[in-house]
């Protein structure tokens, strides 16, 4: 390989098709684990945590698509996550208030329901917006930015600034958004008590199924011609132009898909965790998601998901045991992975499998 | 924009292109490109008819690659027009020009290393499909792609990653990616640069084959290659067209000998050989 600027270890020379049954078998095993074993073994509190991590995994899947496959390092996925979360939170707040003003509005002295809130009383509208708003924002941003050939670090900084800006906006509009506290105190979820174990188990299963479906969809995307085009854009955007494709369109669409995934994740996160607030979608959580994807392996969709779950558990464990060390550990882990194993856990695992196969077993 | 040097060569005025003017595939008039104060192209007129195989030669800095860059939309001209099939190319973006039917290769070939040879070709061949139809899984090999694989001699490497190809093989893959796009004009920028002699030979054969049913412009430095495979030649010098004519006319021209002598002795010796 002559690659001068590829710090990433070279994949095998001839791409060998993995044996047909291996992929589906692995997927079925993970599905069994997630849908049957986990709900049976985990106590409700732990199952709730896993549901939360799986929400992050949905965002991570989108990051894997945009960054790993498309080369767009997005440091602002929290924005789309937040937009989806707030859409769902607004519906839940209105539903709980039952025709009155939501509690936080009363506390902030708001007397009439703002016009922006009114349609969110309809759950179908709210759910549609949880996806549509992130997608449209990403489409607009992408159309503006990618057409102007903004990329690499500039794009990353731009998305990060967007996350910071949204936080400021949300905090500043106390009466409309609940300010720093965000939206919380939800009680009823489509006629079920949100605090009940049964409801939470149902939510967990929903999140797991949604993640599985989105994973299959993303996998289909990656393996299609569009997926190859996306890789080509990542590795040689200028060359792609001379094949007659507009890279800006390819990038914008992919970015919108990843934003839609983050929106769905946000909408699921709210009933699972019971809160959406600026602290959950700003610069730091957006960065943490990217770190998770890097650790899991950004070039494999499953790696991105794995990374989000592993980082979620690591964070919970260390903030219970060694809260002060977590931040440093996370930073150290990121540096280690980027320097020693740029393909992350997924890359290490794939290397192991390959070596074993080459050993002739 | 009068071309003073061109008048000195009778071949340029009496060339068969005059008859083809009405149907010229590519028409460049009064083209100027300036980078800061430097005029990379200074008043170039060039007409290429359908089915022609045209070589563009000239010493380093003559403006050959810049000319290709302007045609393909990579560089914006300061003045002048480029017409392809009568359409003004000014202000069109790169991928739009490709869609009109102008394809090019680069001096340093850029194939997609993570994709296989087959996938590279398939991607190139699919560019006219609507974007949504790309979402389907592309299975199988289209006849067109199979034919191109055959032409460029990479059938046995179809399922290898393009990253493992040699320099020569990469150039052929690039040419293959051009062919499957069915362009009406192919621009090859120094296709044999850095190639071993057997690779050059193979590339020459490939070029001859392609030129049979395509219009091709080849930028080339290599005099030996030129002598073997060129017929019509345009010589650029310091951003201007120095002369146009057949290979023999160009090689016999004292001006051409002079600039090659002045620039690089080795090239000059090749040129007059």
Automatic annotation (TrEMBL), chain A:
Record keyword Transmembrane helix present: yes
Bilayer topology: Multi-pass membrane protein
GO MF, any single term: branched-chain amino acid transmembrane transporter activity
InterPro entries: ABC_transp_permease, ABC_transptr_urea_perm_UrtC, LivM-like
Gene Ontology, cellular component aspect: plasma membrane
Record keywords: Cell membrane, Membrane, Transmembrane, Transmembrane helix
Transmembrane segments: 25-42, 48-67, 124-146, 153-172, 202-218, 253-277, 289-314, 326-353
Main subcellular location of this protein, as a coarse class: membrane
Tree of life domain: Bacteria
Intracellular or extracellular location(s): Cell membrane
PANTHER family registered for this protein in UniProt: HIGH-AFFINITY BRANCHED-CHAIN AMINO ACID TRANSPORT SYSTEM PERMEASE, SLR1201 PROTEIN
Protein name: Urea ABC transporter permease subunit UrtC
Lineage start: Bacteria, Bacillati, Actinomycetota, Actinomycetes, Streptosporangiales
UniProtKB/TrEMBL annotation, chain B:
PROSITE patterns: ABC_TRANSPORTER_2
Domain ABC transporter: 26-263
GO molecular function list: ATP binding
Pfam family, one: BCA_ABC_TP_C
UniProt keyword list: ATP-binding, Nucleotide-binding, Transport
PANTHER family reported in the protein's UniProt record: CONSERVED COMPONENT OF ABC TRANSPORTER FOR NATURAL AMINO ACIDS-RELATED (PTHR45772), HIGH-AFFINITY BRANCHED-CHAIN AMINO ACID TRANSPORT ATP-BINDING PROTEIN (PTHR45772:SF8)
Name listed for the protein in its UniProt record: ABC transporter ATP-binding protein
Organism: Microbispora amethystogenes
